[in-house]
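Quick one - first record:
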Amino acid sequence: MNGKFIKFQWIPSHVDIDGNERADLLAKRGTKSHMEEIAIPLDSIKKNAYAEKIVLNYNRYLSYKSRGKSWEKIANDWKEFSHIPRKEAVSNFGLRTKYDCLTEHL
């Protein structure tokens, strides 16, 4: 990686929580303690950036294609349905867009 490294560090924020001062003190101590360095391969970083770019382009395309359609408002909510069975997702989509196979038979 050309002698470069990235250091990630997470320190939580405790706002309006009992013991806030104690948490702040512990967080300060945490910044002074030894942090383990984890090498992330450049290929892994590139692959992640490429995947993010694909998702971004897909979302832009989906927004463009859904313009003016009955499902425009939920076009980018597809992640909501990605963890449920397809049959359930299709039914949910039909109910949210007020479009389902029943309207063809009425």
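second record:
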Amino acid sequence: MACIASIDWGCAVQVTAAATIGSGGNFVATTGQTYGIYLAILFTHAVVCSLATEVLARLQSVYVILNLILFFGVLIALPAATPSEFMNTASFALGDFTNLSTYPAGFAYILSWLAPVWTIGKSRLDFSFDCGLLTICIGAYDSCVHISEEASNAAVAVPWAIIGAIGISGILGTAMNIAITFCMGTDLEAIVNSDIGQPLAVILFNSFGQKATLGIWSVVVLTQWGMGSSIVLATSRQVFAFSRDGAMPFSNTLYCMNSYTKTPVNTVWFSVFIAALLGLLAFAGEAAIAAIFSLSVIGLYIAYSIPIGARFLFKGHNYKPGPFNLGAFGLPVAIVAIVFMTFVNVVFLFPTDLAPAVADMNYGTSSFRKILAFKCLVSVVFLFPTELAPAVADMNYAVVVLGGVMIGCLIWYWFPKYGGVNWFEGPVVTVDVLPQTSHNGDTLMATPEISEERRVRIANADEELLASLGYKQEFKRTFTPFEVFGVAFSIISLVP
């Protein structure tokens, strides 16, 4: 849900950037106006994601096309249209490093390349401009996992969709960023501090002028909107799955399939409602809403790390690899992944700037290492602010939000008499157990309406695998492998 808030807030800011460009800089949106646009975007996403699965599946192809239009528009048109005064030399585009933060250059570099694609904005670009290498940390690439119950041949299509989306986005995104760095000029402070509020919009405006920029920017906004639509889709399915097991508050209400669209409409609107509440943090200041951006990464990486670690830490379970697996590479990849995600989570708990009192200190190597060690300790262990006396505007509220969520979850589970520990028994089996039915050595299950004569084997392989986990088929499987790829690709996106 933090991802929904992050993406849709970014889309709202992009809309206000278009208004600023269209007005010649005379209009600068207030927080209230931006929040109103944000609510409108959330509403449209809720309406679209309440539609039938067939419609949602076809939309993924549209989102892929929008990303490709944006890519070729930037890669081809931007260098052709950029005036000579904004064209950069190879030495600047590929080798210059400009630090606009109060952090030392090395740590500012780390903060810049850890910025997630969907939340790159002023709050993160302030750290530094590194034109020698731009590496981007991408999250939510597991989004297509959450629609696996709606996908054909999900056991193979979903993992290949993740790999394909990451690989293609990495190649195209790198090419796009190289084109941008060659065409953005050298006045980086002007790009970051423009009233337009979006560095990419400033770069496009300098190259194309007002009208052409609005045309290209409309594609950027539509691409971002598609990203938000896909993340609402994935989140609603995840909430549905948790509600099916009774793990969510109001599970009895949320676990409901609309009789007309055959989709979990209740979980769609619930997800959007929570995202709308998270957006209220914008009224507490830029640092507060930036906490949602950080939390979207922190929350995802915590969720990724737990099952990856559990897979290798608990050897007693009867783990059987599926048709797609990493084989001998599984453990090394898992170690690298967990180490990297832990490092990312620590970094994202830092404020966007050092507190003024600390900024005046001498940043020798020894001093900074002590500060860094102290920050990590405070952020990870105690979830306190990362400075002893930070200014309100410089705080990173991700630790507050993350701590609040964790405390809420602990209360929800351990609360005396009413907490989940008193009634939650794990995943709820929604089909009958059939000991005489097996596939690849696994005991299978089938929906109660299947007669005894037909219980020897479930014809559909996807339903068979789902039944082996104890769940009946409740969604229509209309997502093709390409459309599954489209979900992951549209969320990773090429929007810089």
